[in-house]
């Protein structure tokens, strides 16, 4: 016997949760099934909307002709992207016509962000303005983003207060001195210094960031000193490290740390550090494992629960079980080795892109494995890439191509199934990495897919 | 700073490094110049096979005998560069029995120790061999790390007074009165180790003799001196798997053909290869069919390769040579022997000798032979001891086992570090505390990276080759920025940034040839990490135009926030949440 709902959402990331909540608010009975933990926990926790309109012409090769072994790109000729954009909405019309923002429309992005603001509550900032914020990344650059964790707020690059970037000798993600130098090279309107301090040394040389966060949560004693006090003591000697243009010494007014300032007790940890240091404290989002990503995932699943959406994780949807008249009736869910049919009036596919395994590939081609939806791609896999790693990579735009209701299209431009909608990374046409649009695309397409699925189901 | 020396050796591959070591040990004043980093050319782009000689036992017994002889020498003098994997020539049902017997007899005739295995025994030793492999010849093939080998040779040469200049391309061969008298080089980044953004200079090095050991590039150097050296460069693909499906070298037992060898190397297996003549050793197509051929054909021997994860592919160019007039059509038929061309005898241009052809396994023998020739030409009497004198780093094998206790490092890091560093391990590992891992895939620690930076400057590709950092599954996605961060102790920020970009782009080159399945997912993850999370592509520090920071969000409590907040922009007392949102999420 099939397990039934009005709308079945397949996936567990930002797009899936957005779609599930959007569908639920249209009055549909919604169920969400996800396989593994989502890629949210690998993400930085920043909610990007649109930061750049990237160049689509290739970097100029030094020689004419086909790709060859020794061919180098002329780095001086690399085209710059348009940006960083202060206004994420005004750049949309300059994106390619096949971009999901162009298809679902700018209002979907606005509404998606508004829904996010509501779900994230006071943990996030940026909703007070249409403008992008610029925030330091752990690579030492600054990046345009639409929403940011409250924990990152004191790090805004448009703030002119002098800042200290703290790095740890036992952590290898960045070197604080190079970090500060890079901020300087970006022309930020504040003076910055970097200091590599000893603190995390008390832990094993390769202790994970999550381990450090727990120590700060519980204020564990490190060599007899409580962790928060020990951390403040390690940083205190560097509070006057900033030298301004005139050569004068400034006391820093804000201090940036890698994002490990507590897991459950982050606000308290930051407040205590700020108090001890006499300066605002901010987190710099890091790569995986990312605490801001994990915190956001927890918060969103809480929101899903509060919304009354049933969800189950750990069970992959393996394919269509029954279909009729161009509509999917049931899908097969693998529950501990047994395939169980799940029926719904409409389905939202939000399984992610190449990273989240929403797209699968081999030497012959790229596939969407659940509904076998069409994935636009060059036939020859040597046309899936360009020579500049940061160039206009065709593989970065792989995915299904939806209509304005979010339904993936077949080769003739018709909806492949009348009741299947797609959202998030599985949707192609965007280079979310270079555009800095990943979260925005998930929010906009998730909102549309969820609402349209509900409409389809409750008709 | 022009200099007069005895010999200039051009080319920092295995041959050039071997020659400069030999000459220095014989007491000559020698300089090695290399346009890239050591192994930049063919040496750094091979599959790492230490030949037993078995491959040539039928077609070229002279080469086969040289191989087994040098195979034994290298196990002795370069233990830290060699993994004694052993090898097999395996026969499938469709492969000729007659050839199998010829191979066996050939090996015996060349004094290569062999053992015949039936299919079952072969599979007992290598469980992933195909079910229908009928039998195999086991012999002492091995894996050699060409980079460690070259670095050790260069280090030994330096200890004996030689000068090693990398990133120093030869821009002219100096000819005066019908005689070669030296070379002009350009220091791309100033003399010594490489530093990004350091301006270059040219230098004349005058020498009594010039050795052209540039392999596939020998024609270019010859041209600068006005002589013809007709090298016939031939490309071959090598495809890198993410794990060791086999622990011994697996060869296909048939006369000749593409895609007939799998070499285990460090944590990976390398599939090889093709043999296609090219016009220019630096500009030739890297083709899809070559990669496909490796996987399709070699999975006949090891079926697990068919669906296994490949990390990248790379191509190398063999410096094949044959005397003028030989006219061999198929590059696979060109001899693998080496040739010593004395341009005085050959072209009436004394003062320069070119060495071409040959292979890495016999590099020391080639170096000995050319050093003999140079000494004779210069009237210098000295004997060669390179076959007996151990290379730096190889003296003590037992040290590795002690390392784990000594440095309190957890396995397998200490073991791997110990293997990579050889007997230098305690010098290097002692210095750093804490010593976190910088590259997780290959377990490379800070101490090793710092040691390599000390040696190679800000050239992170040279650091990579010395340490294997960024050569694992993630292909640098999770560690290029960390490796670059290690430069920050010594170098200013723009150098760190340039070095990071250069390594990341280099890592991308090889991945392009493995872009499907898990490695395509990895490439996308790397793209997201470096472009989305770090914004390395859009960093204002790299852009031409300046950013108006005042046009961006200055925070909800910034003085101008209320003016520019747009339609929802009431800066609220609740920490910046717009008033209407604060109402709707009031329940949360």
End-to-end separation of chain B: 74 Å
Largest sheet of chain B: 9 strands, mixed
Any low-confidence stretches of chain A, pLDDT <50, length ≥5? none
Question: How many beta-strand elements of chain A?
Answer: 21
User: How would you sum up the global shape of chain A?
Assistant: globular
**Tally of DSSP helical segments of chain B:** 18
- Broad structural category of chain B: alpha+beta
Which protein chains make the most extensive interface, counting residues with beta carbons within 8 Å of the other chain's beta carbons? A-B, 103 and 95 residues
Distance separating the two termini of chain A: 24 Å
Give a verbal description of the structure.
The complex is a heterodimer of chains A (459) and B (588). In chain A, 25% of the residues lie in helices and 21% in strands. With 459 residues, chain A is α/β, with parallel strands linked by helices. In chain A, strands 1, 2, 15, 16, 17, 18 and 21 form a 7-stranded mixed sheet that branches. A 4-stranded parallel sheet of chain A has the order 8-7-13-14. The mean pLDDT of chain A is 92. Chain B is of the alpha+beta class and 588 residues long. In chain B, the strands form 4 sheets. In chain B, strands 5, 6, 7, 13, 14, 15, 16, 17 and 18 form a 9-stranded mixed sheet that branches. In chain B, strands 1, 2, 9, 10, 11, 12, 19 and 20 form an 8-stranded mixed sheet that branches. At the A-B interface, helix 3, strand 5, helix 4, strand 19 and helix 9 of A face helix 7, helix 15, helix 16 and helix 17 of B.
